[in-house]
Specification:
binds fe (ii) ion, single chain, Jelly Rolls, about 280 residues, alpha+beta, 3-stranded antiparallel beta sheet, binds 2-oxoglutaric acid
Amino acid sequence: MRRFTAETADPATIVEELLHGDGAVGISGLFTPEEIAQARAIVMTHSEEAADKVTHFQGAAAEDGRLNLQRRVWNLLAKGEVFSRMASHPVLMDILRKFLGTEFIMGSIAANRILPGGPGQEPHVDYPYWDFHRAETHPIGLNGSFPMNAQVSVLLDPFTVESGATGYVPGSQKELRYPTPEDKFYEKCEQMTGAPGDVALFYGVTWHCAMPNNADHDRSAILIQYLPKWVKPMEDMPAALPRAFLDQASPDLRQLLGLNYPYPEVLDTARAGNTEGRA
Ligand SMILES: O=C(O)CCC(=O)C(=O)O
Ligand SMILES: [Fe+2]
C-alpha cells in the first residue's frame, strides 16, 4: 500500500493506485490529535453498551456469543461536528471527485469498534458490491468499467497486525467479484496498518475485512462510504438528521447527503408540490 501525506496526496496518482495498483492507499496528516481524541470519545460513549445494533460481516466466529466484541455506531453526523469535518475533508473531496465523479455522495458514516478478543470479519467487498456472491441480482458485466464505491477508514487507535488492522489482498479490486474460500484470503492478505489519525482509502471492491484483535486495546475506526451520485445510499442520513442540521449544512456536505441530486422524484405533479419535504 503506497502511503501519502496531506501534501503529497495527488488525486491522479491515488486514483491510479485504486484502479490499477493495490486498490488501497494510506494518507496521513489530515486530522489533528484533538479531532481524533474527540471522535474516539464519542464513539466509545455511544458503544459502551453492547447494544444490539446492526453489524456487518461479523464472520462465523462471532456467532458463538462474542457478537458484542464488534460494535457499530451509526448516523455519526448527528453525534458530533467533528464527523462532518472528517467526511468533507478537502483532500479527500479532491481525490473522490476524480474517482467517483464531481457530484459523488456519502452512503454511510459509522464507527466500527473491535474490542480485544474480537474475532474480526469474513473477507468481503463493500456496498453496493457486498452481495456480489448473488451475481444474478446485478446487471450483466458486474461493473466492469467504473468504480461504484470508495471507502475511507479514519483510524482512532493504533492499527497494527496484532490489533487486527484491516486485511486486504492487493490488486484484488481487479477481479470485480466476491472472494471465495479458494482465494485463500488469509494467505495473501496484507494489512492497512497505521497510527491514530491516519486514513486508509480503498476501492470497496477490494477484498478486505477487519482482522482478529489480539491486542490488549480497542481498535476503532470511522468508516465512510462514498458512492457515485446515482447509487442508493446505505444510510438514510437526511431522514436521521435534524432539520436544522440540513439547513446549515455546507455546500460540500449537502452534496454528500445527496441533497443536490433529486431522484427519485414525483415528476407527475406541479412543480410547487414536488419539492415538499425536500431539503
Ligand atoms: O474495521 C475494519 O477493519 C473494516 C470494516 C469493514 O470492512 C466493514 O465493516 O465493511
Ligand atoms: Fe468492508
